[in-house]
Amino acid sequence: MKKAILAPLLALCTLPAFAQQGGFIAPNAPAQASQGGFTGPGPHVSSVKQVKEMEDDAWVRLEGHIERQTGDDRYVFRDNTGSLNVEIDAKRWNGQSVSPTDKVQLEGEVDKEWSSLGVDVKSVKKVL
User: Fold this and answer.
1) Which domains does the chain have, with CATH numbers?
2) Is 2 helix (H, G, I), strand (E, B) or coil?
3) Alpha-carbon distance 80 to 117, whole Å?
4) Cα separation, 110 vs 43, whole angstroms
5) pTM for the complete prediction?
6) Could you give the CA distance from residue 53 to residue 112 in angstroms, rounded to a whole number?
7) pLDDT tens for residues 75-108?
8) Quick one: CA dihedral 127, 76, 95, 122, positive or negative?
9) Is residue 66 a contact partner of residue 76, using CB atoms and an 8 Å limit?
10) What is the signed CA dihedral for 55, 56, 60, 65, rounded to 10 degrees?
11) 108 bridge partner residues
């Protein structure tokens, strides 16, 4: 008897959550528009030299060249002020192929460890 009462009560309690999220989506319903976000200016372009002076987890944008791969998702990035190690997960490439001659723009977070410095890249774009 308690189970018969509990199930409908639980269903009623979850309805406000579904209503707040837009309810159920039918299998053939058109895709919803993206939610959008900030469209103003982002971080200015930093140099490798500047990154070496930044705090851990600072957000940076770099422009230069990826010289070579040093591990599964580790690369050496170089601009006109020096070079540093960057980590680029496979999903960040977004199907782009990049060679050492291609100029790229990388965005990510400074990653300072005890004895190493690098950038954890969140976005890779070819610069034309």
Assistant:
1) 45-126 (2.40.50.200)
2) helix
3) 18
4) 13
5) 0.68
6) 10
7) 999 999 999 999 999 999 999 999 999 999 999 9
8) negative
9) yes
10) 110
11) 60, 121
Q: Cα angle at 22 between 16 and 24, to 5 degrees?
A: 90
Burial 77-96 (b: 16+ CB within 10 A, else e): bbbeeeebebbbeeebeeee
**Contact, 108 vs 84, CB < 8 A?**
no
The answer to whether 94 touches 126, Cβ cutoff 8 Å, is no
The total of other beta-carbon atoms located within 10 Å of residue 54's CB is 16
Burial of 106 by CB count in 10 Å (0-12 exposed, 13-18 middle, 19+ buried)?
A: buried
Give the residue carrying structure tokens 């990388």.
Answer: 106
Q: Locate 88 and state its tokens.
A: 């680029």
Alpha helix locations (H) across 31-81?
Answer: 48-51
